[in-house]
Specification:
Length: 75
């Protein structure tokens, strides 16, 4: 599905804890995340620290979206 969407010119970022799955589905832009039950968060952290961590992951994903890639790239 990822390759089909990108074929229409829509960039895709796959945020995943298990990056090998991202590669197997054909994602070219991969952002590794934190943990399986909480991919973009960690409820054991304070609210401020978790918010900062989430913001960094989203910014990394936005950077990936705006980067031209021709092969699998990790951000």
């Amino acid at each position: 599905m990822v390759k089909e969407i990108e074929r229409y010119g829509i960039p895709i970022v796959h945020m995943s804890t298990i990056t090998t799955i991202s590669e197997s589905v054909g994602a070219n832009r991969i952002v590794p995340t934190i943990a399986i039950p909480y991919p973009v968060g960690n409820p054991s952290l304070s609210k401020d620290v978790e918010t900062d961590m989430r913001e960094k992951l989203v910014k990394r994903a936005l950077t990936a979206l705006s980067t031209e890639v021709t092969e699998v790239s990790y951000f």
